[in-house]
Amino acid sequence: MPNTDHLEISAGNEAESEAVSKPVGAGDNGQAETDLPIGRRLQLLRERNGWSQRELAKRSGVTNSVISTIEQGRVSPSISSLEKILAGFPVSLREFFTFDPDAEAPVFFAVGEMETRQFGGLNSRRLFAHQGVAVTHVVYEASTGEAASSSPSLYQRDGMTVGVIISGQLEVTVGGQVRVLQAGEGYQFDQTRPHCIRNLAEEECVVLSVSC
Questions:
Q1: Domain definitions of the chain by residue range
Q2: Which CATH architecture does the domain made up of 115-211 adopt?
Q3: 205: which of 50, 101, 139, 168 is 20 to 30 A away, CA to CA?
């Protein structure tokens, strides 16, 4: 039996147990409003974003095993658990259940239609994500005494990353190598190597980044 501690399942909570035993989006007759099981729908949405299960788990604040067991259909998440996972995209419950995995991918994107992410002094807009490859437009805000950074210290994760500086300058540290890159210059490295990317300048830095 899978470990469901992270899915907020409580044997003593009838309401929570019902939310787990009956799929989210199901009507009173127990039939789901979508033909796709929740796990399969979650998997397709994750893959459309080009993320591994580990990446989605990290973004959602749950364990990798939680994502895996849901996608395999071994458990059906409670409403609150599913909302927590969907916040990692982010999408709402309504968007999740109306998402059409067979729809043709859009050709053009307005600024407001791109997935955005902000933390620290970093702002990003994802332009493309498919089969584990993501292309992102990243803006590192101008330094105000504290460097705008992708991480406050050396960081490690799975995959490769490649970037080209569009404007401004960026300090890139990979292992024991450190270099300040100017517009037109770039970088590539295996993200399992300890690394840190920081903007130490008094102007913002714009980067086109590809990760896989």
A1: 38-98, 115-211
A2: Sandwich (2.60)
A3: 50
Sequence-distant (≥ 6) Cβ neighbours of residue 104 within 8 angstroms: none
Residue 161, classified by CB atoms within 10 Å of its CB into exposed (0-12), middle (13-18) or buried (19+), is buried
Q: What's this model's pTM, rounded to 2 decimal places?
A: 0.54
Out of 1.20.59.10, 1.10.260.40, 3.40.605.10, 3.65.10.10, select the CATH number for domain 38-98. Answer: 1.10.260.40
Residues 29 and 27: their CA atoms lie apart, in Å, by 5
- Rounded Cα distance, 119 and 132, in Å: 22
Closest alpha carbon to 164 in 207, 125, 201: 207
Instruction: Choose between 155 and 92: higher pLDDT.
Output: 92
Task: Give the span between the Cα atoms of 52 and 64, in whole angstroms.
Answer: 9
One-letter amino acid at 51 equals: W
Give the model confidence (pLDDT) of 91-110 as tens digits.
888 888 887 877 776 778 77
